[in-house]
Amino acid sequence: MTEAAAPVLADANVRQMLSPFGLDVEYTRAEGNALHYTDEEGREHRVVDFACGFGSLMLGHNNSEIAERAKEILDAKVPVHTQLAQHSHTNDLARALNEIIARELHTDEPYYALFGNSGAEAVEIAIKHAEFDRLQRARELLDGVEDNIATARDAVSGGGAQVSPEAYDLAGVAGGAGLEDLVAEVRRRNEAAAATPPLFLTIEGSFHGKLASSIQLTYNEMFRLPFKSLSAQARFVPADQPDALAKIVSDERVAVLDLVVEDGLVRVVERDFPVFGAFFLEPIRGEAGIRPLSEEFARTIQQVCAELGCPVVSDEIQCGTGRSGAFFAASHIGLRGDYIILAKSLAGGIAKTGVVLVREGRYRNDFELIHSSTFGKDSFSSLIALKVIEMLEADGGAAYRAAEERGAKLKTMLEAVRADFPDVVKDVRGRGLMLGLEFHDQSEAASEIIREQTQHGYIGFAVAGYLLRNHGIRTFTTASALHTFRFEPSIYLGDEDIAQLETALRAVCGVLRRQDEKGFAVV
Ligand code: PMP
User: Keyword Transferase, does the record have it (predicted)?
Assistant: First the structure.
């Protein structure tokens, strides 16, 4: 069959969607911060990649040191898949990550590692672990209530106590009905409370993956709503609004009833049932439009969760592994998650891995017996991740300093563009090599083309296509904030790449300022 006649059986719809914007190019070579494609006339074009795997290429495309290490591992015939055996490479990786946790997050509490294949899979593992832990906490609570019922029965039957009149009121049982009726009602209510499904908390705009459970923690409704019935739900808290968080917690709180014997009286007290599964947050929300979490709100979340006994899960899949200028973006805001998740850049853009690190105080080691995956924790990806860590940590963390320095230079340029086009550029945000530039909304634009492209939600693709075809720049908007373009290059970003982006962005701003009728149509 000729190429032209070959049916497109993978991603045909996406390809069709990209085509009108000139984004359906096939990249044939990638190195460092650049991608290359060949046009219809056979000319090769270099593209500066500011999307960089949506955060997975902190060390660039096909990093030669990592590629060399990959070849070495394969040539050495290191066993890759050996389930149910010892995995010293994986353990070395967990230890290396623990050393960085100790240094950056200032704790000597160990974190135990659970491995998966991708970001979303690691999030699913965290969800499962949190649920496993929640049910055990619930069981401990309800067992405690049973112990207290037995104590109350002994006290009443031995004549040492009687049921207090308020106890009947609190349980909604007729006054004087007797201890057994009270116990029956307490158990009935507690059984109903225990059937409450877990509720997860996260922040508006968050992105935590697209698998069956993780998608319910992802804000974008187009992705989330079709699958609502598949899994536990999340409440999305507006960022930096402690009062809104307090209201959500108080609205969703579920209490069970317990009995206590005090001063010869059996009383009824309420106890919090562990309904909150976990609070998932990103120290820098990527798909929400590159929005760093404030130190203050991080502190509030930690306090509220500590009070609820609910674990805080720090999703560093996109912002972690050095991109922020430190290995953990949470280290900039004094946030120490009970769970920490890494993926994307951890495997150097060559292998695939995802890891959930759970601090000892919250870790349920029985979980290891009930969760596994064929490709989780293979030696190849573990050794590649170890190589990535070695490269990041080399020369006293030169790579983190490079992320900070390159990021600062890039941000200075973005801010200069904003200063010259305040009518077009609304904001520049982010940290290190995770930056965003937000355009003002164009849904009321004077240009019909620009207005319509905005109203139909594809102005982002139109601008991305224009940047690619006219300026050799690759970037996209974030998934839940469609006016914000992402800039997440590798540490190998050159000054000339920044200059190329500046020219391109100034051209885009010019089109928007002039409301050029041609808009961003690819001709
Ligand atoms: N969490 C965050 C913060 C992410 O940015 C992403 C990917 N954009 C994911 C989870 C999901 O990771 P993956 O695409 O590897 O499933």
Answer: yes
